[in-house]
């Protein structure tokens, strides 16, 4: 029996590992290789060593994109997790105890569907929807209301000071529903007896949240923070469709994926774009590793 185990496992994993190697590992390896060349997308690439990486350090567009990722990395996970935690708590625990079970607020089943709805929409559709929401004239959803009540319109995507935060707002709106479901699943695994014991000791809803729910949900929060951090490095579609001039105005919303696309397909600098891709790869891996390391806590068993 033990002798036949390894051939079975190898045979079971052979096809998926092969496909993963062809369509994921091989393109990554090719990108690393091209990052050391001056390839323009056609012809034979010429090896130039670390010139592309040296050029990155003096590229203002690259550093502006990195700065924008830093802002998104701070704002997106924090805002999304806070909102999703609040909604998940209210939908699962906020209604009190009924029949010995913790229940959510009235209508929680309907609210779950509403919150999750953005997840079923394609990213491009969400960006087009928010083009209508952010329109600077009275035909826009927000500015139409502001105009009706006599207030000046807000130029969301035109004002460089607001454009990036407007992008972050779309990312938060898109992601909250998924994390409501994720946190709800985590809260469902917390035994009701723990909440009952805390209530007997006089715990309020706020105390239940900070002293019971949050500590027991820490592993799920850690995963959510990593996912949202990766999403902060992967917001190309929203920026490409929603922003002015693909990363404008004046580069106020540009991100690394946009600069990679621009260098590869507009300027014909595929080798330099690959170097940016390698930098993005290491930034993402570093963020995930640091987040898991810094947020590591001893597991609570219950």
TrEMBL record:
Key word Glycoprotein present: no
Domain ABC transmembrane type-1: start-end pairs: 66-291
InterPro entries assigned: ABC_transporter_permease (IPR051393), MetI-like (IPR000515), MetI-like_sf (IPR035906)
Transmembrane regions: 7-29, 71-93, 113-134, 154-182, 224-244, 272-292
Annotated compartments: Cell membrane
Source species taxonomy: Bacteria, Bacillati, Actinomycetota, Actinomycetes, Micromonosporales
Its membrane topology: Multi-pass membrane protein
Pfam family, one: BPD_transp_1
PANTHER family documented for this protein: ABC TRANSPORTER PERMEASE PROTEIN, DIACETYLCHITOBIOSE UPTAKE SYSTEM PERMEASE PROTEIN NGCF
Record family assignment: Belongs to the binding-protein-dependent transport system permease family.
Keywords recorded for this protein, A-Z: Cell membrane, Membrane, Transmembrane, Transmembrane helix, Transport
Main location: membrane
Name of the protein this chain belongs to: Sugar ABC transporter permease
